[in-house]
Specification:
The chain has 12 helices and 2 strands. The protein has about 240 residues and is mainly α. Helix 2 (about 15-30) crosses helix 4 and helix 7 (about 125-145) runs antiparallel to helix 8. GO terms for molecular function: DNA binding; DNA-binding transcription factor activity.
Length: about 240
């Protein structure tokens, strides 16, 4: 039995695959299992958590649907690198977002993302900047088509977190992606009803990108905070 498994020997869980999946997902989000790591076998998880292997199999299958793990026949189950669109689509019909969820998320984002964007401005590589710009271009394309662009928006913010080159911050952004994804969609559905607002949101994201491109951490923080305060105001009105 590997060292990671020893930390959860006393774990108690109801025998449902949803809760097993939530537990394994939490371990991934917390960095216990990192991208590329091989997860314990079905038998090992079954013995460890006190559930049947069929329950483990269902849990792993749901994590695969979310894009969190990859099953390699003959080798095992491995943690995959986070893909914002896969996770968003995997969670799309799960857990309705309440008003309290939205308020908690907005509060967390103001604290976390203003710090993240400062670090990204200082540490980003040319490749990081290219990925952020690609997400921004996707947003611009969706605005031109009259679409919401919520997935591109999620990708934009996540790529900024990746540009910090801090795995803890990356996992923090990953861990709030479920609620963040649906909140972005909900906020855009409301804000896009106001004429000119899609273009305003796009302009705010361009200001954030410009500051990161110029490695101006102060401007990047100001642009991110301005953007998040605007979203908060629009949602609360």
């Amino acid at each position: 039995m590997n060292a990671k498994m020893k930390t959860i020997l006393q774990f108690k869980i109801r025998k449902t695959y949803e809760e097993v999946a939530d537990y394994i997902k939490e371990q991934i989000m917390n960095g216990v299992y990192k991208p590329g790591d091989r997860l314990p076998s079905f038998r090992e998880f079954s013995e460890l958590l006190g559930v049947g292997q069929s329950t483990i199999r269902e849990a792993i299958s749901s994590l695969k649907t979310m894009g969190l793990v990859t099953i390699r026949h003959g080798e095992g189950t491995f943690v995959t690198r986070f893909n914002p669109e896969d996770v968003l689509s995997g969670f799309e019909m799960i857990h309705p977002v309440t008003e309290q969820d939205v308020m908690s998320l907005l509060e967390a984002r103001k604290i976390i993302e203003t710090g993240i964007v400062q670090l990204a401005s200082e540490r980003r590589s040319d490749e990081d900047l290219k990925r952020i710009e690609e997400a921004l271009n996707e947003m611009e394309d969706t605005v031109a088509k009259g679409d919401l662009g919520d997935k591109a928006d999620l990708k934009f913010h996540y790529e900024i977190a990746r540009a910090c080159h801090n795995p803890v911050l990356e996992f923090m952004m990953q861990s709030i992606s479920e609620t963040m994804g649906k909140t972005l969609k909900a906020s855009r559905e409301k804000m896009f009803q106001t004429k000119g607002y899609p273009e305003q949101l796009l302009a705010e994201h361009k200001d954030i990108f410009k500051a990161i491109a110029n490695k101006n951490s102060k401007k990047a923080e100001e642009a991110m905070l301005y953007h998040l305060l605007g979203v908060e105001k629009e949602l609360l009105d």
